[in-house]
Amino acid sequence: QVQLVQSGPEVKRPGASMKVSCKGSGYTFTAYFLHWVRQAPGHGPEWMGWINPHSGGTKYAQKFQGRVSMTRDTSIGTAYMELSSLTKDDTAVYYCARGEEYCSGGICYLDHWGQGILVTVSS
Amino acid sequence: DIQMTQSPSTLSASVGDRVTITCRASQRISGWLAWYQQKPGKAPKLLIYKASSLESGVPSRFSGSGSGTEFTLTISSLQVDDFATYYCQQYDTNLTFGQGTKLEIK
Question: What residues in A contact B23, CB-CB < 8 Å?
């Protein structure tokens, strides 16, 4: 069955960077776009961007451009999301999620989600 | 960016009730809309895509409708397992989620 397994919770200082991982299994990793979505406490989900695991191409939400980087290692079926210059407003649960099969240009609904990673930014 | 507005923010209902949640887009998105269910401490779960297509394995009491800018999610007969928060998401231009509707037990 399709699984997206994410790395563990993190605590970061303001100004630091975070890098979280998402390992896909049960499907062909390079055949589906992989999205990153975050959810601050008590808020709705917020889309951050996607990576095409086949080509390595990316698209980032404007809000995060210049501060986010999405990469992948196809040899181990794992995607990474790095976010820099953290502030307390970046405290959230970060999810990876798979785009549906017929995702056009990366823009699609999300059919499988990782378990989420709580990242806390605190001094 | 396309904004998604859900109503109501909170909905109190009883087991067996029929409930409807509305999602409005700030511009036309054709039928590029999905609905998700989220329970506390868990990831969102896909229920509906392309406005009205039921995801495999999702009970048939869930249904979606709408096009253009106004969409609805209907649960025909509420079960205990359905009390959760529901989100809409557009995928016409990038991805945007609504702020959520919390479905509570009356």
Answer: none
